[in-house]
């Protein structure tokens, strides 16, 4: 009888660990070499209401503001200005 209780308790503890685990953090890709990049987050599919940003500048500094979820777009920009023509 006590063995059944022990097996049940272990199974219940394992199940609660799986169910209560935190979801994985959102992963952002690295910017292409020589570029800064960023994601704009919108509350609507038409991308009319900007609610947040996640950017990585050319020095690798990460900046976040607002809400980083919902509808998003990705952009990248060169770190060096183009040479004069």
How would you concisely characterize the structure shown here?
This protein has 85 residues and is of the alpha+beta class. The protein has one helix and four strands, in the order H-E-E-E-E. The N and C termini lie far apart (85 Å).
Describe it for me?
Helix content is 22%, strand content 33%. It has one helix and four strands. A four-stranded antiparallel beta sheet has the order 3-2-1-4, with no helix packed on it. A hairpin with a 7-residue loop joins β1 (35-42) and β2 (50-56). By secondary structure, it is an alpha+beta fold. The chain has a domain at 26-78. The longest helix has 19 residues, at 2-20.
Describe how the helices and strands are arranged.
Elements: H1 2-20, E1 35-42, E2 50-56, E3 62-66, E4 71-78
Antiparallel strand pairs: 1-2, 1-4, 2-3
What is the count of DSSP helices, taking H or I runs of 4+ residues? 1
Write down how many β-strands occur, each being a DSSP E stretch of 2 or more residues: 4
Strand percentage: 25-35%
Cα Rg: 22 Å
| Lateral arrangement of strands in the main beta sheet | 3-2-1-4
Which regions are unreliable across 5 or more consecutive residues at pLDDT < 50?
Answer: 15-25
Shape: flat
Q: Helix proportion of residues, in percent?
A: 10-25%
User: Gap between N and C termini, in Å?
Assistant: 85 Å
H/E element sequence: HEEEE
Structural class by sheet pairing and helices: alpha+beta
Mean pLDDT: 76
How many strands, which pairing sense, and closed or not: the largest β-sheet? 4 strands, antiparallel
């Amino acid at each position: 009888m006590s063995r059944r209780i022990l097996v049940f308790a272990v199974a219940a503890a394992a199940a609660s660990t799986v169910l209560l685990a935190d979801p994985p953090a959102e992963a952002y890709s690295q910017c292409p070499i020589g570029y800064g990049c960023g994601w704009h987050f919108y509350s609507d599919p038409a991308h009319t209401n900007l609610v947040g940003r996640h950017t990585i500048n050319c020095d690798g500094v990460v900046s976040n503001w607002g809400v980083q979820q919902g509808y998003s777009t990705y952009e990248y920009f060169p770190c060096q200005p183009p040479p004069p023509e």
